[in-house]
Amino acid sequence: MEYLKAFLCGGLLCLVGQLLIDRTKLTPAKILVCYVTAGVVLGGMGLYRHLVDWAGAGATVPLTGFGYTLARGVQRAVEEQGLLGALTGGITAAAGGITAAILFGFVVAVIFRAKPKG
């Protein structure tokens, strides 16, 4: 049942993103920013936690989950360090994912050659 919930939640988030691409003039970059921002706002308000509890990876893996991780990291760091935590908590919480993205991006860039478009 966990897999079905994750699939439904992640699929719905992807469906909304695809509809935004197809039916609006929003660029993928703007949609990305909207998804991350929505995750931060909903995480900060405590609402995204319910979705994470229900859908698991279906809510934490998409871009909204990255925003949620940033918000949760800031909340924890502010509780521990005060105002300084607002500046450092999000990056600390998401450091593993950011590091993996940089590392795998570098490895792929080394292995494969970029081809010019056209």
How would you describe the overall organization of this protein?
The protein has 118 residues and is mainly alpha-helical. The protein is built from seven helices and no strands. It has helices spanning 2-23, 28-44, 48-55, 57-60, 63-81, 85-93, 95-111. α2 packs across α5 (63-81). It is globular, with a radius of gyration of 17 Å. The chain starts with a helix and ends in a 7-residue tail after the last helix. The mean pLDDT is 92.
At a glance:
The protein is mainly α and 118 residues long.
Helix-strand category: mainly alpha
Point out poorly predicted stretches.
Answer: none
Mean pLDDT: 92
Supply the number of helical segments: 7
Identify the notable features of this structure and list them briefly.
mainly alpha, 118 residues
What is the secondary structure topology, with strand pairs?
Elements: H1 2-23, H2 28-44, H3 48-55, H4 57-60, H5 63-81, H6 85-93, H7 95-111
Helix pairs in contact: 2-5, 5-6
